């Protein structure tokens, strides 16, 4: 149930087609509703509570578990997003649910209703290198699955600084920029110095030995010279996308 469903319920109370006691009982339990399976406890009230439905982290889950989770959640929400899926789980979901969209590089599958654009504003996802694309694809998939307007710029890292400078107009047209970078992790600081909108930095595990599996770019981003850059965890394209969605949603549209 989202804000429109709640509005419909309140209108039903106003018109007299639903009594106050029944409506109150539903609303009092809705934000904390769960569905229990033998291997998972699903947070079916998350959208009513936070504005965003539960997204399923697929790593470590069997194909059968993914299908069971999907069947349960789809009864409560129009679509279910899975991230970090194995090839077997991804194939099982695609076979079991004909209505879907998948992003192979991002290991992400959306089953159920494919949303149209919901949010005002545009998110631009920028990658420093082609090797950062799997993380960026997870970010783009998450944004599209939630109804955001998304575009991408690829392979514009600081080793060829003219490449990102040539994209200044596109950067400045964005409402939020998500920058995905490994190696030295310097690109978010450059972007943060070019735009006034929120910038979210996503470090990746791309890089040689001293990159330490993404720790080096993570530390660079945390020490960015440009003011106000937000940083999520290593390889967390999903987290970068959700941070952007919360910014787009703003403080007065929870549940929409």
CATH architectural label of the largest domain: 3-Layer(aba) Sandwich
Calculate the terminal CA-CA distance, rounded to whole Å.
10 Å
Portion in strands: 15-25%
Oligomer: single chain
CATH topology of the largest domain: Rossmann fold
From the alpha carbons, calculate the radius of gyration and give it in angstroms: 20 Å
How many helix segments?
A: 11
> What value does the average pLDDT take?
89
Tell me about the biggest sheet?
5 strands, parallel
Query: How much helicity do the residues have?
Result: 25-40%
What is the global morphology? globular
Number of domains: 2
Low-pLDDT residue intervals, each spanning 5 or more residues: none
The arrangement of helices and strands along the chain is HHEEHEHEHEEEHEHHEHEHEH
CATH class identity of the largest domain: Alpha Beta
Structural class: alpha/beta
Query: What is the number of strand segments?
Result: 11
With strands numbered from the N-terminus, the spatial order across the biggest sheet is 8-7-9-10-11
Keywords:
256 residues, alpha/beta, Rossmann fold, 5-stranded parallel sheet, 4-stranded mixed sheet, 11 strands
Describe the structure.
By secondary structure, the chain is α/β, with parallel strands linked by helices. It folds into two domains: 33-112, no CATH class; 122-249, Rossmann fold, CATH 3.40.50. Helix content is 38%, strand content 17%. It has helices at 3-15, 20-29, 46-50, 63-73, 87-96, 133-145, 162-165, 168-172, 187-192, 215-222, 237-249, and strands spanning 35-36, 41-42, 56-57, 79-83, 100-103, 108-112, 122-127, 149-153, 176-181, 199-203, 230-231. The strands form three sheets. Strands 8-7-9-10-11 form a five-stranded parallel beta sheet. The protein has a four-stranded mixed beta sheet with strand order 3-4-6-5, sandwiched between helices. The protein has a two-stranded antiparallel ribbon with strand order 1-2. A hairpin with a 4-residue loop joins strand 5 and strand 6 (108-112). Helix 4 crosses helix 5 and helix 6 packs parallel to helix 11. The longest helix is centred in the first third of the chain and has 13 residues, at 3-15. The radius of gyration is 20 Å and the shape is globular.
């Amino acid at each position: 149930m989202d804000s429109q469903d709640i509005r419909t319920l309140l209108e039903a109370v106003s018109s007299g087609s639903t009594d106050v006691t029944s409506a109150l009982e539903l609303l009092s339990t809705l934000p904390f509703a769960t569905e229990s399976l033998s291997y998972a406890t699903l947070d079916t009230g998350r959208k009513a509570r936070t504005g965003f439905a539960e997204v399923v982290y697929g790593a470590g889950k069997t194909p059968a578990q993914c299908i069971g989770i999907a069947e349960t959640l789809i009864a409560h929400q129009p679509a279910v997003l899975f991230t970090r899926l194995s090839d077997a789980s991804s194939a099982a979901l695609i076979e079991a649910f004909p209505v879907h969209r998948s992003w192979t590089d991002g290991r992400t599958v959306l089953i159920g209703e494919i949303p149209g654009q919901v949010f005002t504003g545009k998110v631009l996802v920028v990658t420093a290198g082609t090797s950062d694309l799997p993380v960026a694809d997870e970010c783009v998939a998450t944004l599209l699955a939630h109804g955001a307007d998304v575009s991408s710029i690829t392979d514009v890292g600081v080793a060829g600084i003219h490449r990102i400078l040539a994209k200044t107009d596109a950067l400045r047209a964005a409402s939020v920029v998500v920058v995905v970078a490994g190696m030295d992790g310097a690109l978010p600081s450059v972007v943060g110095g070019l735009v006034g909108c929120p910038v979210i930095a996503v470090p990746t595990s791309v890089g040689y030995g001293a990159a330490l599996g993404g720790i080096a770019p993570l530390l660079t981003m945390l020490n960015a010279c440009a003011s106000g850059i937000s940083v999520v965890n290593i390889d967390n394209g999903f987290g970068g996308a959700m941070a952007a969605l919360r910014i787009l949603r703003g403080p007065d549209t929870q549940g929409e």
